[in-house]
């Protein structure tokens, strides 16, 4: 039988890094809250097909306020894993141990893993591991997950504790102790019948969890008795019931830390972080510094490093394509098949693959920023600005993920505790420029703005962000009237990014990009070739303007005439872009039948002017996301109508902005 082990801990404690080390899985590791939205699974390397490890979302407590906490609690109570691995940040013991005290209430065998012990030791601090084991009555394993130190010890502890009986130590004392034991007598039978941990049930009752009252079928008579007990507890404690429960837990934690944790000074990482934060989180300089950093990254990606590598990739793809076409010609393959392979598949897929170096370089730099801890600071700096438009800084995290892909970004809104904030963020996130649009930017920039790549890129990103701000203000004062929830964010210490984490993240993006190229783009290229090569009577046409696709595109193109691009090929590319944004590039490549980059750029000059090309670029940034993102939107909003209204709003805003850019620009150019 497969034995399930739950891995749980606070955000930014190295949980996913440990998961990767134990399973060898290529999970994305981030250094900002919200990166782990859903549980991930993998088998422990030395026990393949026997011990399944479940990476639960990073949380601070078992109070079900956010979707992450709900996912974790539901799994622990319903799936009943045979062991819990509770990983904590050894540089911040008191805060991390709060979750530990709650996990102790679940009566599940548990081991405690102290991560970042290397930082504790280097700073001259120490932790009495044996003393901690004795007081918590469980195995405690010191590790450094990022350096792969102590991983074997964790596996040994897992093997030792797998067949242990349920684990529980009594940490309650004082007036809360009396209340807990009094209520336990009332609900014990109901909790046992539902196979729920008694102590967990009682603490939920003290916290006023109505779902727990209903689940245990507590009648009005017992409710009155429980209320009397809690009122008596509040009177004796001199505080409200929830605060009394928290105080009891922290009293236990303080006693444990007093005898086992010896702090001489802050860690070097904490001291260094405080110095850096004086500049990077400065009230006035924080946002300008972020913009300058992104401008520098765009310059490296699209000019200094990316452009030569893209040219090299394009040259290699061109040579490969010519070789394949020559091979088909030598073997006297039918013309239509040569056209399908050369003008359809190779042109469509190759045009997208040529942008792979740009994708890899951009995500390399973004992963470095993310893994260093800087992105959490950006969320902190952005909180004040976002609050003015009706959102909290926590909404910045899904939006930031949106620069990679809208699908996980929309799913990441589950970390928002407010339904209002969550829905607003889902609507606004697609305005962030996802990586699938990078080939479109590269295409337009290479053809029309080759010497202003970084400036154009920054402008495009800023337009998306600006429209998100304007839309948020509009929604805040109409559909989503109200205030955002308070934003609480832990700023992790700055750490040097690990090459392994950065490599795994970049590899994941590259694999996803290549997978799209050989699946969605491949199929789209075949369909586009067919539609532009045949008429409605299924005659093979030499002039694509006589094709089925031309007829469809010509029917739609007048809609885009006020935006400056009424060529049927442009409107057709936008329609195929709904399947995947990269399809815009492959479609235009197939339709222009370009054999080289120079020929393609020349063909684009016949479709767009520089002004209409920029308007086209803006429209592609802002109009409805791909089908996969739409499906994620529908799933998270739980409504087809709301999802459709969302994409109509996004496309309407895209049309309006592109219209204004072209019409106003046309007055001056």
TrEMBL record:
Keywords: Cell inner membrane, Cell membrane, GTP-binding, Ion transport, Iron, Iron transport, Magnesium, Membrane, Metal-binding, Nucleotide-binding, Transmembrane, Transmembrane helix, Transport
Gene Ontology terms for molecular function: ferrous iron transmembrane transporter activity; GTP binding; metal ion binding
Highest taxon of source: Bacteria
Binding site for GTP: 9-16, 34-38, 55-58, 115-118
An annotated GO cellular component: plasma membrane
Keyword match DNA repair: no
Residues that bind Mg(2+): 20-21, 23-24
SUPFAM superfamilies reported for this sequence: P-loop containing nucleoside triphosphate hydrolases (SSF52540)
Transmembrane regions listed in the UniProt entry: 284-305, 345-369, 424-448, 455-475, 513-536, 548-565, 611-631, 643-664
Keyword Transmembrane helix: yes
A Pfam family the protein falls into: FeoB_N
InterPro entries referenced in this protein's UniProt entry, alphabetically: Fe2_transport_prot-B (IPR003373), Fe2_transport_prot_B_C (IPR011640), FeoB_Cyto (IPR041069), FeoB_GTPase (IPR050860), G_FEOB_dom (IPR030389), Gate_dom (IPR011642), GTP-bd (IPR006073), P-loop_NTPase (IPR027417)
CDD domains according to UniProt: FeoB
Compartments where found: Cell inner membrane; Cell membrane
Annotated membrane topology: Multi-pass membrane protein
Domain named FeoB-type G: residues: 2-164
PROSITE patterns: G_FEOB
NCBIfam families, sorted: feoB, small_GTP
Functional summary from the UniProt entry: Probable transporter of a GTP-driven Fe(2+) uptake system.
Family membership noted in the UniProt record: Belongs to the TRAFAC class TrmE-Era-EngA-EngB-Septin-like GTPase superfamily. FeoB GTPase (TC 9.A.8) family.
Protein name per Swiss-Prot or TrEMBL: Ferrous iron transport protein B
